[in-house]
Fold this sequence. Notes:
With about 240 residues, the chain is of the alpha/beta class. Helix content is about 45%, strand content about 10%. The chain has two domains: about 5-15 and about 100-240, HAD superfamily/HAD-like (Rossmann fold, 3-Layer(aba) Sandwich); about 15-95, DNA polymerase, domain 1, CATH 1.10.150.240. The chain is built from nine helices and six strands. The protein has a six-stranded parallel β-sheet, sandwiched between helices. It is globular and about 55 Å long. The protein starts with a strand and ends with a helix.
Amino acid sequence: MLQALIFDVDGTLADTERVHLAAFNHAFDQAGLAWHWDAALYTRLLEVSGGKERMLHHWRSVQPDLTELGAGAVQATIDRLHDIKTAHYEHAVRAGAVGLRPGVLALMNEAHTQGLQLAIATTTSPVNIAALLRTALGPDWRSHFLAIGDASSSPVKKPHPQVYQQVLRDMGLPASRCLAFEDSANGLRSATASGLRTIVTPTSFTAHHDFSGALRVVPDLGAVGLAQLREWHAQASTSKA
């Protein structure tokens, strides 16, 4: 029996990546760095989970001899860039630059009406989650979710399953009673490694990923209601049995 829906955030709840990309470039400009990520480069960098990790990966690719100087100067620079980027992203979200993807809010409301639990499993930072969901769901957005796993509570990034394992523990539910929602190959690998059947809704940044192992791959959740999800979940449970 299906009892809970677990959502990734960036790319899944909302198509946020273009706004994140603009925020990264803003941070680079503010810091006087000669870096500029276009959509093609950012698409490749999204294979690295986590904003700080993504910047460090890029820095090492353009400066292979990069080493820590003094008391963690490289990490301090990454942290400062991330702070600037996050502030810019929050401002853009509050200004209405991002909305929930088609069908997301309707599915959440339907799940709540029918007594299913909701949870979040993401590698993004708590402030990014709050910026998006406070705007989309209101100031009491936390009350919609039984459990929230993020970069602060599960620091090992996807495709590692840590965040999903944490959320399942916090909910007190087995993976077999839940469905996960993702938009990327790393997210899918993280969820399935935790035993979760996973619905994938790709974005333009992730459409080229390998989604082998997904329960279903659909353009968005606009035409996917709870009855359809229950049917897919039941079919998968029966076939596994």
